[in-house]
Sequence to fold (246 residues):
Amino acid sequence: MQTVQRQSISDELRDRFESAKSVLVLTGAGVSAESGVPTFRGGGNSAVWKGMPFDLISSARMVERDLPRVWEWFDYRRTLLQPLEPNPAHKEIARWEKLFQQFTLVTQNIDGLHQKAGSGGVIELHGNIWRARCVSCHARYEILAGERRADECVGCGDRLRPDVVLFGEILPRGVFELAAESAQECELCIVIGTSGIVYPAASLPEIAKAAGAFLCEVNSELTAVSELCDEVLTGKAGEILPMLTT
Ligand code: APR
Fold:
């Protein structure tokens, strides 16, 4: 599919970028693809780990049944992520934060690359692989790269689990509501690198559109969101995002 050229970005989108006071950005695995993080449905992610299907090892059921094995999987994923750096898409989004009165970044990614690029106040719908959480008191602990992670909660002594939303689990309380509020209020909503099929995250562009926002998608292919959009920019996020302000 033809990658978008600078001149094919509409004047309307450029004007909206100039004039918008409140902007919502929703990102998915595609924004980290150019950093080397495999996407879920782009064929990059191996569907099986040590003979166990990806959506089983990453499930609430496995936390109940075999937490050490779940940790083995997430420890392995952190070692893959550790050397990876933010790409131009992450860096551009971090720069946008200072351009608008009200800027909200919502991500489905657990890789922490937005924060590594300098983004603050990121709404993490699916948690973060660099954090652990107590199964009882829900106290959260940062996991530092290259350091041994704790197994027990200092507060109540119970076990720690990855602070990530696993298959079969609902999102952390209040996180989606915060994102939905911003979607309701934004004038410009940009959806970057998500297949738009996992709910409730995929409902955010719908909420923004229904509330009158201009909806723009940046993705290397058409997705479930494309039809809803006022403008679809096809290509790599790391190449397209810097074009939006230059
Ligand atoms: N630039 C822009 N888009 C890209 C790029 C790129 N360089 N590379 C891939 N993409 C697009 C793909 O075309 C695809 O539409 O990114 C999207 C990635 O889709 P998924 O793999 O489905 O990832 P995502 O939408 O984030 O998945 C949502 O599903 O498995 C769960 O919890 C997991 O957060 C994840 C959620």
